[in-house]
Write a structure and sequence with these properties.
six-stranded mixed β-sheet; 8 strands; 31% strand; hydrolase
């Protein structure tokens, strides 16, 4: 099987993976941590700042695939501290419009590079 992948030049990757992979009309985006693509370093600041950067990175991947935020059908959010949920949720609400994508939010022990948040998503190309 040959994979049809998407990589955005202005989103960082910290391992041997593609930013996204197509499966039919579905685009499965790898989780993005809050890395600043200009320097490859984790964004300093609170979880709101890190959430913004995760979405900036993900939306660059969507754009590289010819999609936009309205094409997102599902989002997975991973937080190292569930006390950050309200702050993340506030930023999340500014990135999508109603009707919102399905979402799962999971508390986890740790994330790559000490990030407080990682976000992955699935989008659908409309024919």
């Amino acid at each position: 099987m040959s994979r049809r992948t998407v990589n955005a030049s202005n989103a960082a990757a910290v391992g041997p993976y593609s930013h996204a992979t197509w499966a039919g009309d579905l685009l499965f985006c790898s989780g993005q941590t809050p890395l600043d693509p200009s320097n490859g370093k984790l964004v300093d600041g609170n979880v709101a700042d890190q959430t913004r950067q995760c979405f900036d990175n993900l939306f660059q991947v969507l754009e590289a695939a010819g999609l936009e935020p309205d094409d997102v059908v599902s989002v997975n959010v991973y937080l190292t501290d569930m006390d950050d949920f309200a702050q993340m949720n506030e930023i999340y609400a500014t990135r999508f419009s109603s009707p919102y994508p399905a979402r799962t939010t999971i508390g986890c022990a740790s994330l790559p590079l000490g990030a407080r948040i990682e976000i992955g998503l699935t989008a659908k190309r409309h024919s």
